[in-house]
Structure formats: structure tokens, C-alpha cells
Write a structure and sequence with these properties.
- This protein is mainly alpha-helical.
- It is built from six helices and two strands.
Length: 165
């Protein structure tokens, strides 16, 4: 595998065997987005496509299961706010519950929700508030945030198939 090109270039060897690099996860998630949007369009969703797209991109770039690794690309994308995810990375072991297809995103959403509640309380104390969005955006936002999480976990599961193959 050393110096290999093509498909092998996107995979690396670690203590768990052959695993996909971070670029594989993001590429798979972004490649799937047009299919998600086309499906939404064919289902007659119009106004819901904007929150779905924005949430999908946010989920891909900022809410990856790899936030359990403090030096991961998704964690670094948070910039100076990366410290917000330090407690999360201490609680969740890499490829543990953070990589569960349902519980992983749920814990990240609840964690981020808790942070937003604290920010909202601070802003309220200053006489400010967080922006509101229409209630009709709730479901497409949750779906948009969850789908890239699921794809990330599925790409990691491919590692198990490749290792045995």
C-alpha cells in the first residue's frame, strides 16, 4: 500500500486496519448531496430544499462523527470555537457511540443544542437574541444534518468489508 495511487491513495493503515481518510468521508457526503436534492425536488419539496441543503453542508463540514478527535478536520473547521468540542471529545471514544448511526448524531445535536441554549441565555442577558427560523424548517434541517452523519458511518463500515475482503 505504500506509495499506492488511485483508490488506495484515499485509504490509510491504522490500528484498526485499513480505514478511509477524512477526504473520503467528505467527498462521499458531498457527492450524495445532488441525489438528496433531486429526491426532495421529485417529492415536491421546494421551500424545504434551502434548509435541507444548508443543514446538509453544515452536517458534512462541522458536525462529523470525527468531532471526537480534537485534531480532526471537522474540529479544526470550528476555528477558535473548536474548544467547544473538547468536552465532547473527552466523553466519546473514537468510533464508539459517536459513530453510531442514530445515537452519534443525537448526542452531537443535543450537545450543540445545549451550547446554543447557553449562548441564547447569555445574549438574552445582554438584551439580544438568536435568530429564529420558521418551524417548517425543523424537519428538513434535522434530515439535512443527519444524512451526512449516516453516510460517514456507512463509509467507515466499508472499511470493515475491505479489511475482510
Amino acid at each position: 500500500m505504500d506509495g499506492a495511487r488511485g483508490l488506495w491513495f484515499a485509504w490509510k493503515q491504522d490500528e484498526n486496519g485499513v480505514v478511509p481518510r477524512a477526504s473520503v468521508h467528505l467527498a462521499a457526503e458531498l457527492a450524495f448531496l445532488p441525489a438528496v436534492l433531486l429526491s426532495g425536488h421529485l417529492l415536491g419539496l421546494r421551500r424545504e430544499l434551502l434548509p435541507l441543503t444548508l443543514a446538509y453542508l453544515a452536517g458534512s463540514l462541522f458536525l462529523s462523527p470525527d468531532l471526537d478527535l480534537p485534531q480532526s478536520r471537522p474540529a479544526r473547521r470550528w476555528g477558535f470555537l473548536r474548544f467547544l468540542w473538547w468536552p465532547y471529545s473527552r466523553v466519546f471514544r473514537h468510533r464508539g457511540l459517536s459513530h453510531h448511526p442514530l445515537l452519534g448524531p443525537l448526542f452531537r445535536f443535543l450537545y450543540l443544542g445545549g451550547v446554543l441554549i447557553l449562548v441564547g441565555l447569555l445574549l438574552r442577558g445582554l438584551g439580544l437574541s438568536l435568530p429564529r427560523f420558521p418551524l417548517s424548517w425543523l424537519l428538513p434541517t434535522v434530515v439535512g444534518l443527519w444524512l451526512p452523519q449516516l453516510l460517514h458511518v456507512l463509509v467507515d463500515r466499508l472499511r470493515l468489508v475491505r479489511r475482510r475482503g
